[in-house]
Amino acid sequence: MDIIKLLLDLEILVSPTCYNRLKSFKKPDLENLISKISKFKNSKKDFILLDNHFMDSFLNNDVNDLIIEYANFDFIKYYIGNNKEVQNQEIMSKLDKKLSEEYALIDSEIKSEKSIESKNTKEIASNEKSLTNLENLEKNDKINLDLKEGTNNDEEKSEADIQRDLKLANRLERFEKIKSIRKSINSSFKFDSKDIETQVKVYEDTDVTGNSTCEGTLDDFITYFRDRYETLKTIIERKYQKKSYPLNKAYTKKNEKIFLVGIISDVNTTKNGHKMVEIEDQKGDFKVLIMKNKIDNKEIFGDILLDEIMGFEGTVSNDGRLMFVDKTYRPDVDVKPAKKIDEEIYTAFLSDVHVGSHEFMAKTFEKFIRFLNGEVGNSKEQNIASKLKYVSIAGDLVDGVGIYPGQEEDLYEVDIVSQYEEVANYIAQVPEHIHFVIGPGNHDALRPAEPQPTFTQEIRDLFPKENVTFVSNPCSVNIHGLDYLLYHGRSFDDVIGQISEAQYTNPCSIMQELLKRRHLCPTYGGRCPIAPEVRDYLVIDKKPDIFHTGHIHINGCGNYKGTIMVNSGTFQEQTSFQKKMGISPTPAIVPIMDMSNMGKIVHEWDNGALNSKIM
Predict the structure, then answer these.
(1) Could you tell me whether strands 589-594 and 601-606 are parallel, antiparallel, or unpaired per DSSP bridges?
(2) CB neighbours of 169 closer than 8 A, spacing ≥ 6?
(3) Cα angle at 576 between 170 and 353, to 5 degrees?
(4) Who contacts 41 (Cβ-Cβ below 8 Å, separation ≥6)?
(5) 3-state secondary structure of 230
(6) Residue 347, phi then psi, degrees to nearest 5
(7) What is the pTM of this model?
(8) Which of these, 320, 349, 389, lies nearest to 507 by C-alpha position?
(9) 3-class DSSP state for residue 162?
(10) Is residue 446 helix, strand or coil?
(11) Which end of the chain has a smaller Cβ tally under 10 Å, C or N?
(12) What is the pLDDT of residues 99-132, one digit of tens each?
């Protein structure tokens, strides 16, 4: 700590790695270094971050040569840099401004402290000269006591300042390292996808960004559930070519066979194991009875969720009070072959990066960024890296701030803007011909209720503009001719608790349950909050070619009736919460798919090694 304080007196910040080096210095070497820096600072008044580069410069060069070499050097600009480089040379990111202001504040505080210290010294000298009698001596003792207390307060303040400065230095060192990734890689790698035009189209009617109108009123909820009911009812009627009978008139069809569509409002099991289900539409409600033997024989769906929309066919009882169900209907997606395109280009699927968490796998993530830059080990990796065109990210770019109680203890970066700046720096190191489509998740800095609009303009401005498309959660996007449905997957926690076949260890078992119901969060009121918009953005109105999710930190791929399902794992090691829950994540596994051969083979970038397996 003495070393740091000594350097702070010279207006020098120290990076963590340099601090560790300094602790091992012998006293003569340290004094020599301090002497050189002190002489340098006499001619250069800027704040300086002593990183490995500048430490080596001071150790290995004559200080007079350094004074000449760095006479007009802008240290602050060098450290905070800009991830937009040539395109945005005149625009500093908001984080850069923030850091610059903090440095200015530190500069001002130090100068102010020196000024106060000088003033206090003069006052003490004057008082000592003039205080000659006992009364004056008592006053003098009081002044000395006050000064002593002030000194203790200054020491406490400087300790806090040191911690703050170390955090700033650590942040700058991380950013500097990230910004150097691309420069350190062989630039002669040939990218075949560089000459292929980017084709990304967001389906605007699926993106809630700028379209949210809900205020949480009763009318909002009524409108929301009416839209859900009408949309899914229409899908069921068209799919099975049947017309639903109004529920408020069903009692009139005693002993007749009819077809009903309703939203599930209640499900109970009788003492004999039968299911009594109550359904509603806009005008009434009705009860339907599903016999146990039909469920056991899998003739009829038994895994019925509250608030899902279903069709029922059967015979109304002779008293008109209920219907005995013969068959059940869901809006399920149609069976079609997996769609593909003609060009051999690849999409990589990411989610749950969780930058800012102590468990974020920074070194492994850097390896992946290097892979995207063509740092490969064999011909197979070379082929895929050269033809990789798109990266789809399904939420949780960062770990966030205030997501759960005590989260700050789990973070190395507690500033939310800085977390996003770090992600943006990584993405800025990826070649511009690779296009990112990015949606948010429940750890991102947005409202928790789904649908979530995309990131704020403040956050989006941190990222490269030429190769990033931001979307809401959920959202449908056409990427090079294939329809992608991006959804983070918060509702998975609710589905797993209600359907026995759905398991955390098998993400596709959850995803296909949502596809069957054509809804991303069938049950209202669970762990996944829903915002009642005028239309239900969580309805899967159109069958996706690719269904991409995340959230549960477990990798998985599958094919359900021609829809390719991808849950893309994480870049965060097992957290303490996951240990308590017995969840074992599969970190640093990135599924990569050939868009001309969808549904056949999935390639996995696995902690730096590329493997392939049949789906």
Answers:
(1) antiparallel
(2) 13, 14, 15, 16, 49
(3) 55
(4) 10, 11, 12, 48
(5) helix
(6) -120, 135
(7) 0.78
(8) 349
(9) helix
(10) coil
(11) N
(12) 455 445 444 544 454 454 444 444 434 444 443 4
Name the token pair of 114. Answer: 């020196």
Segment 359-364 mean pLDDT: 97
| Spatial distance between the Cα atoms of 560 and 22, rounded to a whole number of angstroms | 59
Pair 165, 8: CB distance under 8 Å: yes
* Number of residues that make up the chain: 615
CA distance 211 to 205: 9
Where are the alpha helices (H) located in 46-93, listed in sequence order?
52-60, 63-69, 75-80
AA identity, residue 550: G
pLDDT at 77: 56
Distance in angstroms (rounded) separating the CA atoms of residues 608 and 366: 10
Look up tokens 């296009």; give the residue: 435
What residues does 605 pair with on adjacent strands? 590, 610
Segment 380-404 shows an average pLDDT of: 96
The end-to-end CA distance of the chain, in Å, is 56
Q: Are 564 and 593 in contact (CB under 8 A)?
A: yes
Structural contact between residues 279 and 266, judged by C-beta atoms closer than 8 angstroms: no
Distance CA 391, CA 364 (A): 17
List the one residue out of 202, 492, 548 whose CA is nearest residue 349.
548
Read off the pLDDT of each residue in 404-430 and give the average, rounded to a whole number.
95
Question: Cβ atoms within 10 A of the Cβ of 155, count?
Answer: 10
